[in-house]
Amino acid sequence: MKIAVLAGDGIGPEVTREAVRVLEALRLPDLVLLEGDVGGAAYKRQGHPLPPETLELARASDAILFGAVGDPDCDNLERHLRPEQAILGLRKELGLFANLRPAKLFKGLENASALRPEVASAIDLLIVRELNGDVYFGEKGIRTLPDGRRQGWDMMSYAEDEVRRIAHVGFKAAMGRRRKLCSVDKANVLETSQLWRDVVIEVAKDYPEVELTHMYVDNAAMQLVRNPGQFDVVVTGNLFGDILSDQASMCVGSIGLLASASLAEGDMGLYEPIHGSAPDIAGKGLANPMATILSAAMLLRHSLHLEVEASRIETAVARALADGVRGGDLGGKLGTAAIGDAVLEHL
Ligand code: IPM
Ligand code: MG
Q1: Residue 331 β-bridge partners
Q2: Domain of residue 56, residue span
Q3: What separation in Å is there between the alpha carbon of 294 and the centre of ligand 2?
Q4: Which pTM does this prediction carry?
Q5: Residue 266: partners with Cβ closer than 8 Å, 6 or more residues away
Q6: Residue to mutate (ligand 1; options 38, 74, 84; most atoms within 8 A of CB)
């Protein structure tokens, strides 16, 4: 079992280090971890945010553990050389089209949420975000209009097969949970969303046991803070999913707790915390590694089919939190390594 470890920029290396310690502590036979350069770090060392060797390593692996990319030093580079292109490139090149972002309130964090405890306690949802299409990957540019004004433009589109395959992922996930699927779109304004909605309704015929609802994205943003307990599985496009998943993270207390899986057809997957590289606290040992540790658990579950080991990690994190283990993101004092130690102890 080969796992590519791409730690990347900012706090990426520190949080990834703790997740690797947790994976190693399981003493899985035949587990090989191979490191590669990615993001701004890769640009600085090799001149490209996703060097060919890294892409090859990723392709040759069973799964990828990913830290974070993003580096203010690189913000003025041409877009194709910016660190973010590394994660977008991996998603596209490896066909990682299905992004799973679970959000659940851990016991003991009722008061850490930005929401009232009784509202936050009900959160147990999964955002299924499409990851290979939408305005993220459409044609784009900045052009000069005939009257001399500059205009930025980005093309939003979804083909029906792209919607169909992510809809199936959403329905299947719902079947394994509370059998409720909410499809989020902006069909009152966008044609892309109208097609999205039509196709989701077609796919629903294959899943008569799932209760399907539709919600406009603006309303979904509101409902997510008004009554998040109403959601089981949410399926949505790339851009709306990006925004709603950050919002969901604050509802459960900290973005430092949210893990994600980006899955291809088959067992290949990339696993990363949903937070970014947090340059302001990078290198200080302050970041919460729990989101990355929980991403490693998702890696074991989805790519290696090691459900028992995945649950062990999740239980260890839950117990550490219940025990009062808190980093700065949750108003505590523990640093990255100390939080890793606490999780390892519970493991
Ligand atoms: C995420 C991030 C990325 C995205 C960035 C880093 C390109 O925000 O994974 O949610 O927009 O998808
Ligand atoms: Mg995001």
Answers
A1: none
A2: 1-97+264-347
A3: 17
A4: 0.95
A5: none
A6: 84
